[in-house]
Fold these 2 entries.
Entry 1:
Amino acid sequence: MGYTPELKELIKKVEATRPERVAKARREEHYPALSMDGRREVLSKFHPDYQEDAKREVKVGPNKGDVFQEGVTALLESRSVVRPDKVDLGKVDMETDVLVIGGGGAGTSAAIMAADAGCKVIIANKLRHGDSNTIMAEGGIQAATQECDSPYYHFLDTIGGGHFSNQRDLVAALAKDAPLSIAWLEKLGMMFNKYEDGRTVVRHCGGSSRKRLQSAGDMTGAEIMRVVRDEARNRAEMISVIEFNPAVELLLDSEGKCAGAILFNMETHEFTIVKAKAVVMSTGGFGRLHIKGFATTNHYGATMDGVVMAYRAGVGNKSLHSTQYHPTGVSYPEQNVGLLITEKVRGLGAHVLNSDGEQFCFPLEPRDVESAELIQEAMAKGKGIMTPTGRVGLWLDSPMIEELHGAGTVKKELPAKFIQFERHGIDISKEPMLVYPTLHYQNGGINVDGDTNTVLPGLFGAGEVIGGVHGENRLMGNSLQDIITFGRRAGINAAEYIKGGVEIKELSLDHVIKFEQDLQEAGIEKPKVAPILLPDYSTDEVAERRWPEALTEGTPGL
Amino acid sequence: MCETTSTPKFATGDRAILPEGASTIPIYVMGKMYEVPETLTIMKAMEFAGFRFLRGAGCRGGICGACPTVFRKAGDYKLHYGLACQTVVEPNMYLAQIPFFPANRASYDIEEMSGLADAIHALYPELFRCVSCNLCTKACPMDVDVLGYISALKQGNIEKAARLSFDCIQCGLCASRCMGEIPQYHIAQLARRVFARYIQPQAEHLKSRVTEIEAGKYDQMLDEMSGMSKDDLEKTYVDREREPDMVEPGSWMPQDRQYL
């Protein structure tokens, strides 16, 4: 397939400016980096986190008064999928010790640890067991395993990377448990990259003082997920897995403890009431909200469900205004849209260029600044490149790496990216790539302490759904560690909580009734219904042809 | 170029659009024709046509195995296989998704396995029903040498099977084509775990670190840091030594060793 003739024509402009740019790069003459003031200006004008225009204060609930992106606020101010006063809570369909909501890496680890401690577990999945952002993480998992390293330095790197805005007990838990997580995964039979003597291969990542990134090929998250899911399947007598059956509301009991959830069968549209002594919330992040229309690296099901359910039950969140955008996501070819192109490409000297083939920024600004500069060039200056599928991108001039470091460097240094593009007829050692910022990670999430407790007794949280571990900026390799550390802790603590003697009293949805009253009193008209469960990618044309205005309500089969 | 007052139409999020001037092609989803923009993936083309996935969509990045798809082109008998999120539509392709395949999975206790192949053979006797037709390999969207790892396992070579199958995304297309009714991807999962647990050497440096952590060696250090002022923490952060890039693994030690 490759580039269309129109795009090939535009590439000629890149090629025209390349000799001079390469000559300058050889003389160490770089496009000037921004001053601190310049950074602040471009961030405030163009970084989605800083722009005030599409933000709104939330009017109800534990975070009342805080300001979030419009899409996030709308979901925090949403109403339930069920009419709480019409639900018959007397009919309990299933009972268990621990209900895990979301079977990604965190939830599955929690399930295994709770089962280890003798608890019966149900994992409720929205899609298939393992469908999660965990499975998509490529790079690696941080843990201070080397002799020159220790949890002390892992703590320091993590909190420095997060601009010291992290919640410290969470960082301490992460740093301490990280090597234990690796040992646990090794014992379960995970194929880490190792030297012949069994030592794990470790690498540096952005912001690390010691080599601490362990990996499994370039599919570390997928390997973690495969192994923990396989282990959960081997424990079928303790762990029941229910797929395509997401939780849509938490249940409390008359004493105000968390007591289970309502599940919704997405295939038959039936509801199920699950009574549980403890609940682990591990639903992942919110990339599929496509904040401000951005593409995302996230899984199809990343729609903020857990934050929404917990919010109605009185559990607030932190740092949810902060989203990690990666400056160079793919914008062409269509099948790779939103996927990451590693920072290494720019590290090797590739320039970022506009439609005239001209440089407009220093290529190695911090991630948030670089993202803002790309957005400015394409949207405010109109110098983006339009793709055949209607996306906008900027050039990332990978062929100049060959000129700077010698022929064959691209294939040698970027094997996975080379193959990924070659599959679609683009040789990135000869032709540049089209890139645009992509939504990568929900930095914030629900409030928990270092032992994964929320303010709601019986509700524990783990993984991307929790906030505070990474502060307002996450280091590479800490998300997979977050998943295993807090997943394991949630399972262990839920089991201990149950052993302390938990008696669930009468089930209740009063918290939802109360929350919806608050919505009404706050004057919120037409609140969204959430959790939204899946994104809707219908085009405007299709949506129109569904005749939303003319369609009779109650039409059979719809 | 003609002047236009309307803003250009951009595709946002993951929603596909038909930009001005772009052409459409006919594809057949389970036999029914839809006109979709060229260059879209099967997944996005189906969404453009109005389908909303429940099954058959996952990571949308080629790694989760949710969207295996089989297709044929008009006038050609040959079957092709791919992931809906990674395969670009072609004119007159006839496609169907296989989002789930009922393959047999044997339950086992990893603690009771060993590095010998006998236990794997006992759990999956159907392994020996393989007739080496190689349809599994041809169906694999990840270009895994499926027949290669199945043959290795028949010969008892667990390490070879583990390494050959490493890129498997467990989509099940191999099993869907197997005349021996072998659940290749489940057997491969078992082989990889057995290899990593019983054949690949365990990490000794990690064992020592675990012992230190469990003995509480770092608890006080972490407590101290949790209580530090932001300024002190920032100073400690800025002053920390960085391990050089090009050193032998495990050989470099920092000047300051009190926190190791």
Entry 2:
Amino acid sequence: MTILIIIGMAVITFLFRFVPLLLTNHTNGSSKVEALLEYLPIAVLSAFTVPGIIQVDPDVNLVGIAAGTVAVILVLIRKIPLLLVILGSVSAAILVKMLTLYF
Amino acid sequence: MNDQKEMFRTGLKDSVAIVAGFIPACFTFGLVGKGLGLGSLEVFLLSALVFAGASQFIGVKMLAAGAAAPVILLLTLIINLRYLFISLSFGGQLNRNISVLARTWIGFSLTEEVYAVSMIPREEANRKTENEKMNQLLGLPYLLGLQIPPYVANLIATASGITLASYIPALYLPALNTSLYALLIALVVPQLKGSLRNMAICLSAAGSSWLLNPLLGNSSILIAMLIGMAVGSLIKGQVKAEKGVSV
């Protein structure tokens, strides 16, 4: 039964991701729809990231907040490679976690 | 031919940051799934077949709690509805000649991270033809390079998490999982510089998602996304020019 539910979840998720890839072959979409789709990446990624990172450690919200803040600061300093941003952000998260555990 | 190899390599290179984020996240998933008392096969299949971060975690919790199938499926539907929009927007950037079979794989492995990396232009030292790249549609070799490594990493890391579940102290794992979000921040934030509209979209979407989250749980993402897009369309000014906005 569990396996069947998992397959059901997989099918739903797959259809959402796959079917639009077939449709857009034919769209010449109106400019209004196109403009909205242009806003979509930033809108969906912002909406996804903010509660997500804050709740990343359900016990200590500060872990995610620290990681996010450090990531934003590092990104604003120019020419830092992606991997370094990630590394810095995760280090901040671990540091905060350690501090909350020992103090 | 050489060009295709080159594009595949570019994809591989771009996938490194995603893989770095996936390893701790998928490892944690394996660990948490086992910790909740689900069977190894079930935890692994969730990663291998669903392959969708947040809804996997929710699925594993609900399965472990013995929730009814319709409830779990309905929740999956709501939480993952955002992919419909992501995929619609992504599909417009795909090279027209990519076959349906290839689109099956591309759609299956289309995560937020893949979407962010391939849709958002970046400035990097050795990325020579920024403008050229953005005007081009996404080709199959590049996408194979970009999407295969994260999926393989997902399988291996989940399996490792399941295997090591009884040996690892889970204390620090949440902190490691910030890596996924750090990647997204690193891709989105440069887009906000110098663009009032992008800034407004980001702040309204992030703010409303955060406010609605306690009420709506993970489906707040979808509502907040629509709010962000509506705010974007309200802000007048530079209508087209922003797409390739420089970092």
